[in-house]
Design a protein that fits this description.
The chain has 686 residues and is an alpha/beta fold. 27% of the residues lie in helices and 21% in strands. The protein contains 15 helices and 26 strands. A hairpin with a 2-residue loop joins strand 23 and strand 24. The longest helix has 32 residues.
Length: 686
């Protein structure tokens, strides 16, 4: 981990820089650390439907079902949480970890009655029930790799009785795999788990479980399960376990996707949160992600099959406001403002997240282009996912804006799967951020399946994304966002394409309500150009109506043509199981995604059940694919730079200047205290 001294220094630098930026900037042209917020009254928007075309995976519109997922249209669902690392699928117990008082309990399956707790794999049953209820085609399961699972549900586990409260987790069983596991053998087998799920739900290619995660956040096992006395996981050990468990999965269901290593945060990406151990590996690799990809590739070549389909990461923003308030869990004015910029850490090289970790590891940002470069170098063809991500603000317009920004970036940057992990039970604005892409009119209309070039001239107080449905030109959708708290922005929009657009319906949501409404209709578009006044803190989706001028086939002939009017996104090719290893499950009952246990939480029972007849047919997987294309952030090519006139800037009120000056002085004093304290501590240690 970053040393205490380095953390302190980074935090001080962030605080000082942020405060000085606040003092020296106008109210709506302030700067966060390392980046300038360019804000203009008018923004030049350029959309070109023939440039930078990228297929959008619909599985980026996913969610972790920690809270109610009603009123949300998503395409992937999974469970999350520390306790999954200790889940005993045979008897449905788990240890809640440090945050849950180290209690062994039925906490992961609390929605089910006691009369069914002896049914194996209820956690998966819960996910499948949700997927069936909401017609979600892609379902995922987390496998246990830590080595121990809860053996009972008798409450707190203490260090002196820890050994007898755990069952050993083993990847492979040396005897017959049973549909009704032996709960008295003091072991929990992962191959038997996967076999059970295949027999119950079918192969992934037949509508079963689509993918398996190789545990969750292994870099925190030692901390989360201190009662076990675990040592910190080493890179070598993590790769070894990952390769072995992946091979177990592939032997049983070759069509299922394997996701790993599911680590959280930049510090884990760099060193598994253990720089001392990582120093032994850092001579040959820039960061742990490189090592993991390279070693999983080597293991795959040795086994003759791909053992890592998707590089999976967790990213919960660590951004802070100029007052050092964490964006997650804080809804102050400054935190909300920083939240609307925080997504830039994913793609924008001109942005530095205001957090000690991002500052210390600046060379690894922006994250997605850096990660994609690692994939191309060390394991081409590996997909990328963020199966747990969050920028907070679920009940505030800033959270809705950040959510739309994140999904727009995922679509542009070749992300294959993503799942929001809300931090609050009530998150209507984040739900609207998802629905804008999946069901903006309430009748199934969604964003296109192919991202196209969209540029806003570098204005960081606005965003623009655009898409079409491949094979149906004239299907242009564009998303525009005004992040200004107080002022309108005029969007001067130009569309370059072979389609003449006549009009556009405008859907939006704003700070007054998260409800997406048809708020405007542009009656006439002249020469594919128009102006539109964007209200403060408002998200817009434009549904254009046009006619094709040139009758030519689309340039992207490798993208499957969509025939439905409201296509949500591209569908990966369906994988047929052509050969199955000798020890694979070859017989299974004819089952559907619907299971015999249909208990759901009370808050879900009032929802209308969608048509599930096509669930199995639409549940698709993909074992491997071509290397992801070179990604690029929005550029300002061919767009004149914005020239700022100091005379036009708003004047900072005198009261704010005085307050900020006092705050700067406080930070300076704090820095001196810390430096002196560090000096005497160091001297004492010596």
């Amino acid at each position: 981990m970053i040393s205490k001294r380095n953390r302190t220094f980074s935090a001080i630098c962030a605080a000082a820089a942020a405060v000085f930026a606040l003092q020296s900037s106008a109210v709506q042209t302030s700067a966060s650390f390392g980046s300038t917020k360019h804000d203009t009254d008018s923004v030049k928007i350029v959309i070109d439907t023939e440039r930078d075309r990228k297929s959008i995976s619909r599985f980026i519109y996913g969610i972790n079902d920690d809270y109610s997922i009603s009123d949300t249209d998503v395409y992937a669902v999974k469970k999350s949480g520390t306790a999954l690392s200790s889940y005993n699928w045979e008897i449905n117990t788990a240890n809640m970890g440090a945050d849950g008082g180290f209690e062994n309990s039925y906490g992961l399956v609390s929605e089910f009655g006691r009369n069914v707790l002896n049914t194996p794999a209820l956690v998966v049953n819960s996910v499948v029930n949700k997927a069936t209820l909401y017609n979600i085609p892609s379902r995922y399961v987390t496998l246990q790799m830590m080595g121990y699972a809860a053996k009972d549900a008798f409450g707190e586990v203490e260090e002196d009785n820890s050994a007898e409260r755990w069952a050993e987790v083993k990847f492979n069983k040396d005897s017959e795999l049973l549909n009704q596991p032996d709960i008295h053998d003091d072991a929990v087998y992962m191959d038997e788990y996967v076999s059970f799920l295949v027999n119950k739900y079918g192969f992934a290619s037949d509508g079963g479980i689509n993918g398996y995660f190789l545990d969750s956040e292994p870099e925190s096992w030692k901390e989360n399960y201190s009662v076990l006395g675990l040592e910190a996981i080493t890179p070598q050990s993590l790769v070894s376990r990952s390769a072995l468990l992946s091979e177990t999965v592939k032997n049983i269901d070759p069509s299922a996707l394997v996701y790993g290593p599911s680590i959280k945060g930049i510090e884990a990406y760099v060193s598994l949160k253990n720089p001392e151990i990582w120093s032994d590996y850092s001579k040959n690799y820039s960061w742990f992600i490189d090592y993991y990809l390279d070693k999983m590739r080597e293991a795959s070549e040795q086994k003759g099959t791909r053992l890592l389909d998707v590089l999976d990461l967790h990213f919960i923003t660590e951004a802070q406001s100029v007052l050092l308030e964490p964006v997650i869990g804080t809804d102050t004015k400054f935190a909300n403002d920083e939240r609307m910029q925080a997504v830039r850490v994913l793609w924008d090289s001109d942005y530095t997240e205001n957090s000690p970790t991002a500052i210390y590891y600046k060379q690894f940002t922006p994250l997605i282009p850096t990660i994609q470069a690692s994939i191309r170098m060390y394991y081409p063809g590996t997909k990328l996912s963020f199966s747990e991500y969050n920028f907070g603000g679920g009940n505030h317009i800033s959270g809705g804006i950040a959510q739309v920004d994140a999904l727009g970036v995922f679509g542009e940057q070749d992300v294959y799967m993503a799942a929001l992990k809300p931090d609050k039970e009530n998150y209507p604005y984040q739900k609207s951020g998802i629905n804008l892409f999946t069901n903006y009119d309430g009748d199934g209309a969604g964003y296109g399946n192919t991202a196209v070039y969209a540029d806003n001239g570098g204005d960081s107080m606005s965003s623009v994304y655009a898409s079409v449905n491949a094979g149906r030109e004239g299907s242009l959708r564009a998303i525009l966002i005004n992040k200004n708290n107080y002022a309108e922005k005029t969007a001067d929009v130009t569309i370059n394409c072979d389609t003449e657009y006549h009009s556009a319906k405008v859907y939006s949501f704003n700070e007054e309500s998260p409800e997406i409404v048809l708020s405007d209709v542009i009656e006439e578009i002249d020469g594919n150009s128009f102006e539109f006044d964007m209200e403060p803190l408002t998200v817009y989706l434009f549904e254009f109506d046009g006619s094709t001028i040139l009758e030519e086939e689309p340039a992207d002939t490798d993208i499957t043509e969509d025939t439905e009017e409201t296509v949500q996104g591209s569908e990966p090719e369906h994988v047929e199981v052509t050969s199955v290893p000798e020890n694979a499950v070859t017989e299974k009952p004819e089952v559907t995604a619907v299971t015999e246990i249909t208990e759901v939480p009370e808050d879900e029972k009032t929802e209308t059940v969608k048509d599930t007849s096509a669930s199995a047919e639409t549940a698709v997987t993909e074992v491997s694919g071509d290397a992801p294309a070179e990604t690029s952030a929005q550029t300002t090519e061919d767009v004149p730079p914005v020239v700022y006139d100091p005379e036009e800037e708003k004047t900072v009120p005198k009261g704010i200047k005085i307050a900020v000056s006092l705050l700067v002085g406080a930070v300076v004093v704090y820095m001196l205290i810390i430096i002196v304290k560090e000096y005497f501590i160091t001297k004492k240690d010596k």
